Structures are given as structure tokens and as C-alpha cells.
Amino acid sequence: MTTLEITGGAVLRPDATVERADVLVDQDAGTILEIGPDLEGTADETLDAADSLVTPGFVNGHTHVAMTLLRGYADDKPLEAWLREDIWPAEGAMTPEDIRAGAELGLLEMIKGGTTAFADMYFEVPEIVAAVEQTGVRAVLGHGIVTVGKDEGAAHEDAAESLAVAEEFDGAAAGRISTVFAPHSLTTVGASYLEEFVPKARDAGVPIHYHANETEDEVAPIVDEHGVRPLEYAAERGLLGAEDFVAHGVHVDEQEIELLAEAGTSVIHCPASNMKLASGMAPIQRLLEAGVTVGLGTDGAASNNDLSMLDEARDAAMLGKLAASDASAVPAESVVKMLTAGSADALGLESGRIEPGAPADLAVVDLEKPHLVPAHDLVSHLAYAAEAGDVRHTICDGAILMADREVRTLEESRVLERAGERATALSDRTER
Ligand SMILES: N[C@@H](CCSC[C@H]1O[C@@H](n2cnc3c(=O)[nH]cnc32)[C@H](O)[C@@H]1O)C(=O)O
Ligand SMILES: [Zn+2]
């Protein structure tokens, strides 16, 4: 057995307590073996965690990783106009090589910020699979379907591709990849395609991931056309399974919150995207009180504009309080849970907790920083004060992806250069 020991740190446990402990990892199995104050020190490799907090690796529950190429390409617009006028035309001009370059950039950024797993919805999924294989992270991938504006044949093909991709890549990257069927949203995919493909996804045992109730503009057309709220419409079409997860859930009423809670469908909260696109304030405190599993996601880099999960945690706490008009709403502990176990549970992953037997997906946060002193409460620091740049080491599936801020699975300067070149060329050939 090859082992790794993370020594000298403070460790965040699943009950949100922090204790002085070392963490011993079985690198072959990719799991945590033991947590204790003074482990033997005979491991094959050691990572220093003195003056640091060892936390579960962060789980980005909703993103479009290759959208890093469109970071800063189109800002300051509402969702509809932003997608139709800027984003979709640029995505139409993207090549598989662009997707690979954007995915590598996004993964570099995520690993540097302590993220060890993410859920993605995009196209050219084989390129994203390759980037995940190379970089060593864990991922839940889906091919996003849009049928509006397409003829029947192209729309059908897009939906069929989503199911085929889910079946093909489940278990890839030595089991680090799992997959979802991914209709983009309830308004951008026609009802007939949902009716045809959702039962097929169920038969194949593939969970479903989609955008829901993100903006007011998305709710009204469903109410007008079908006479029910979007999540009732989703439930009627079999889209509210216990393994399914929806991104956003901003404009959900009490009845929809109950539906989510009863069905066991999770919500991935994307506070930065919701603020930037002025989509609204999700009722996170209400969702938590109703017993809905809530995770956290950055959404794509074009609506955020970074992939930092620590930023997202702080945004979630701030926006949750504002939405509830209550400073005690969405407290630090609940945000830290969303950042780790909440997202992991939503995505069907066992990571997100530091305990024996759990996946060794870890981030080590340097506490010797001006903005992290004094150390009254490290859970508070994780929710409110820590930044992506404070992460020292990142470990996933027992492997060291970053040690002392040096990413081992990607050549940083090459990734930055290639992404910059590809993004410029993409922008030059896109008409808008
Ligand atoms: N196969 C589809 C692509 C869908 S991928 C998922 C889509 O979600 C888009 N997206 C990114 N952020 C958001 C958001 O906040 N709300 C809705 N869609 C988003 C993203 O740009 C991408 O086009 C096609 O042929 O157009
Ligand atoms: Zn999204």
C-alpha cells in the first residue's frame, strides 16, 4: 500500500468541529485511512499542514468549465440577452481544441482554489473527459441539450447525444467520472424531447441535471403555457428524482420547495451568477429548513467571473442573509456544509467529509495570512475570509494534484498561454 500523510494541521470534521490531527491516506484505494493527533509518520509521502486547515476538497456543483474562454467576453446583461446575443454565437464557433484549452484553464483554476470535484454541463464532452483524466479531479459530466431554435432532426440528435454521452463515459478516468442526462433548462428544451428521453435516462439509471427557475422570465412562459409552476411541470415529466439536481432554484414558491423536499431533488445554489445576471435571490434558508439538499456552484466563468468556491461560499452567506432579511440566516456552518458535503451529496459523490473510509479529496488552507489572523473560528474563516490563493495543497482520490501551490498535473504557463491564444482567435472569428 502506498500512503500519504498530511501532518501538523487542524482538521475540519463532518460535525463542523476542528481538531489538531494528521490525516493518513491510502493512495492506492484513494481513501482516508486514519485521522489522529500523532500518527506514525512512516508514510511514503508527507505534506506539511502546519498553521493550516485541512478541509474536504470543495465540490463545485454546477459549472460550464470551458466557459473560462469567455471570461470577460460579455458582461452586464440579463440572462436571455447575454445567452442569445453573445454567448451562444461564440459557443457556436468553438472547436474541440477550444473546449480542451478552456477546460484545462478551468481545472487549473479550480485545483489552485482547492476544488476537487465539479459537475459540468457543456458540449464536446470527450474533450472535458480528457482534461479530467489528465488533471486528476473528480467530475459529474453531461452534454447540455438545447432544442429551441433547432429543427426537429438537430434537436433530436442533441438529446440523443446527451444520453449516449452519459452512457459512454460513466466510470471513466478510473471511476472518477460519473455522468448525467443534461437538458439545459425547462424553457430551452421542448416538452416532447423530455417526454421521449427522460424515461430512457431513467431506464439507463442516469441522473438528470438542469437549470431551473433561474429567472422570472423563465417561470412565466411555463405558467402561461402549461398552467403550473416550473417544478410542478418538471415533476409531471419525471424530472424530480432523488438523484437529480437542479441549478439555481431562485424563483421557487413554497409549494415547489415542498416538492423538492419530498422528491429528494437537490438544488445547486449559484449566488455570484444570480447576482451578476440580476436573476434574483434564492430562498436558501427556506430550502435548508424544508430539508432540501443544497450545494454550491460557480456556474460558468462568463457569469461569475471566476471559479473560486471560497468566493462562492462567502457570496452564499451574504446573499442568503439579504434574501431572508435576517443576519442569522445561512450561517457559516451551513455554508461550509454546502461547499463540501452538500454539493457532494447532490452530485451522488461520497466525498465532502474527512472520516475514515471516505474518498481522500482534500484541500489544505494556509492560515498564516493577514486576513486569517486571529483564529477564533476556522469555520467562520472558511465561509467569510479565506480565498482561493490561500490553498496550499490539493489532493483528489489520494493523489497530490497541487503541492505548495504547484500544480503537478498541468503545466501552468502552457495552459495560460494556450487559453489566451485560443480565446483571442475565437473572439476574432465570432460575429456579434
Ligand atoms: N448543446 C447546446 C449547448 C448547451 S451547454 C449548456 C449551456 O448553458 C449555458 N449557460 C451558462 N450559464 C448559464 C446560466 O446561468 N443559465 C443558463 N444557461 C447558462 C452555456 O453557455 C451553454 O450554452 C447547444 O447546442 O447550444
Ligand atoms: Zn449554468
UniProtKB/TrEMBL annotation:
Gene3D superfamilies, per the entry: Metal-dependent hydrolases (3.20.20.140), Urease, subunit C, domain 1 (2.30.40.10)
Function: Catalyzes the deamination of 5-methylthioadenosine and S-adenosyl-L-homocysteine into 5-methylthioinosine and S-inosyl-L-homocysteine, respectively. Is also able to deaminate adenosine.
The protein's name: 5-methylthioadenosine/S-adenosylhomocysteine deaminase
Keywords: Hydrolase, Metal-binding, Zinc
Superkingdom per UniProt: Archaea
InterPro entries listed in its UniProt record: Amidohydro-rel, Deaminase_MtaD/DadD, Metal-dep_hydrolase_composite, Metal_Hydrolase, MTA/SAH_deaminase
Origin organism lineage: Archaea, Methanobacteriati, Methanobacteriota, Stenosarchaea group, Halobacteria
Residues of the Amidohydrolase-related domain: 53-400
EC numbers on record: 3.5.4.28, 3.5.4.31
Binding site for Zn(2+): 62, 64, 211, 299
The UniProt record lists the keyword Signal: no
Family listed: Belongs to the metallo-dependent hydrolases superfamily. MTA/SAH deaminase family.
Catalytic activity: S-methyl-5'-thioadenosine + H2O + H(+) = S-methyl-5'-thioinosine + NH4(+); S-adenosyl-L-homocysteine + H2O + H(+) = S-inosyl-L-homocysteine + NH4(+)
Residues engaged in binding substrate: 91, 184, 214, 299
Organism of derivation: Halostagnicola kamekurae
Cofactor(s) this protein requires: Zn(2+)
